[in-house]
Amino acid sequence: MPAGVKLAALSLATVGLFMLDDPAWLALALAGVVALILTGGLRFARAAARSLRILVPFLLLIAVWHGLTGQLAEGLAVALRLMAALSLANFVTMTTRLTDMVAVAGFLTTPFRRFGLSTRALELSVALVVRFTPAIARQGSLLSEAWRARSPRRTGWQIVMPLAALAIDDAEHVAEALRARGGVEPPNDTG
């Protein structure tokens, strides 16, 4: 299926998910997304689940908070909606080549070029976000494992600064590589 069709279907499905409020319908939608992911096989489904595993504590926190405030149905709906939308987005990114997604971004930004605006930076941004999001999540997982190996306490905010430093370091390396290839102009520090 072409990348443009997948991304359009993802957009429509996400809008549809945000129109649903009933947790039963949202659970059914999530089951449909899981069935879609399973069409890729068990190995593919395990890889998809691993990449989304970091979301589970946040979604549980949302549900628990709403439960404590007497809005359990709303919290469950929010958690199910987010899990379904993010799982579907993950499925699309796992089944679509990065170059195809960048081409779709280039096509969608074509009208801006008519006004003389360069869309190359936006297209490159799409590629970098898709490429580096899993890498940053992997680094966060490694930092959490390192924390657990050294401390009996649970990991938490303590890994935020090291993760931010790693992300900034990676961004600087990518920027240097892009500049070396003539892809990005260095920032102007003169004002």
UniProtKB/TrEMBL annotation:
Keyword entries, A-Z: Membrane, Transmembrane, Transmembrane helix
Predominant location: membrane
Localization annotation: Membrane
Protein name according to UniProt: Biotin transport system permease protein
Membrane-spanning ranges: 24-45, 52-69, 75-92
Family note: Belongs to the CbiQ family.
GO cellular component: plasma membrane
Signal peptide start-end: none
Membrane topology, as annotated: Multi-pass membrane protein
Taxonomy, superkingdom: Bacteria
Naturally occurring in which organism (per UniProt): Salipiger profundus
